[in-house]
Amino acid sequence: MGIVEILGVAGSLSLLAGWRLYLTILATGVAMHFGWLPLPEHLAALKILANPWVIGVAAVGTIAEFLADKIAWVDSVWDGVHGFVRPLGGALIALALVDSSNPAWQVVAFLLGGGGAMLSHGAKATTRAVVNVSPEPASNVVVSTGEDVATTGLIALAIAYPPVAIVIAVLMLIAAVVVTIALRRLLRNIKAGLKKALGDAPAESTTAPPPG
């Protein structure tokens, strides 16, 4: 892989880590274990993800996240706890993919990987926060399952076709920005609507009625 392809894979995996950190680590580790993701020699440090213990822990985390994501209030708590974990995981994945002999590139990769994971996590968490307040559980399960399928498919594409990873990273970045802006506007409009509704509500009279 050339530097552009490496950056594409690093970017796409970091952004996907903001959605499903454990699934991203699990899929990457399995791909390395079976040789589906050949790496240049300077990326040997990343092969730690192929360690059976790392794969095992990532598998347990993937199952836990899969189950937690299907229950609205559990998902909200899970996203809150992982507001720090996912960006750090995305940063470390990007860091491991960059040539360790170039400290400048490593700093850039760490910052961009963490920033990308934080952005995608923010878009995911905000979207799910809106969906989770729905009184019926079906929407939460449908959205969560869609995220599972999309994450798995995009990871497979990024690993199998590194040049495609560049396109995936760019599209995910654009989508995360668009979704974040749209949701911020939606929440702002909802807040303004609630303020207006409360302001227009007739004040409850505190004066006792005259004796009749």
List descriptors.
7 helices, mainly alpha, 212 residues
Summarize the structure.
The protein is 77% helix and 0% strand. It is mainly alpha-helical and 212 residues long.
Biggest pleated-sheet summary: none
Write down the Rg: 22 Å
Average residue pLDDT = 78
Put simply, the count of helices is 7
Number of strands: 0
* Beta-strand share of residues: under 5%
Shape: globular
Low-confidence stretches: none
Spatial separation of the terminal alpha carbons = 90 Å
Class computed from helices, strands and strand pairing: mainly alpha
Please bin the fraction of helical residues.
over 70%
Helices and strands, in N-to-C order? Answer: HHHHHHH
Describe what this molecule looks like in 3D.
This protein is mostly helical. It has seven helices and no strands. It starts with a helix and ends in a 12-residue tail after the last helix.
How would you summarize the topology of this molecule?
Elements: H1 3-17, H2 21-33, H3 52-68, H4 72-97, H5 103-132, H6 138-160, H7 162-200
Helix pairs in contact: 1-4, 1-5, 1-6, 1-7, 2-3, 2-6, 4-5, 5-7, 6-7
